[in-house]
What does this fold into?
Amino acid sequence: CKQTSHHEGTEMCPYYSNDNFCKTFGGKNDALSNFHPCAFTYRTIKYSSREQAYQHQKALFFKDTKVAEEILKMSDPGNIKRLSKCLVVNDTWKAHEEKCMYDICYNAALQNERYRSALLAVGDAFLVESVYGEYVWGSGLDAYCTARTQIDKLPGENKLGYILMNSRQRLQDIIDKVSCNNDEDISGLAILLFAVFFLKNHG
It folds into this structure.
């Protein structure tokens, strides 16, 4: 909660809550994390993770071909993110970054079954990226403290959490649309094929 008079995640915190019912995620071992391996293609380029895709697209946005080429050679998301810090972010990128991240996450969900399944498996849970110190894309707190702080009082903006929830809803809407037009159970492949068709024709 950014207050220094106590340790966050304890009952001493005025924003303490033991029932905020959020689903935290983060770290390369979590399928919902951008650091988790996730093979997919975006704008004709093959990526090994959503973090690689995002940072590569950022480098292309700033026309830094050297950094962009280096990112494609790398596989470790942590190293990729550290390399991308050399890019000087401006207001133009800040106005574009959320759409870029959403497009990447949604397209990855359409193509990568493991990621799509993980996203749909959490149901309607409120998703929060819990990475300590990440105040833009996450809660700014670790998983323990995130789960014990009122959601509307989390110090971070949790932009990635909201993007994943929006992606999940869009996927679910597509699945519901297919289900309404099919009396029999449909396979994951059928859902995916319809999703690709739907995306192509409806954007």
In short: The first strand starts at residue 22 and ends at 25. The longest helix spans residues 159-180. The two ends are 38 Å apart (CA to CA). The chain has nine helices and four strands.
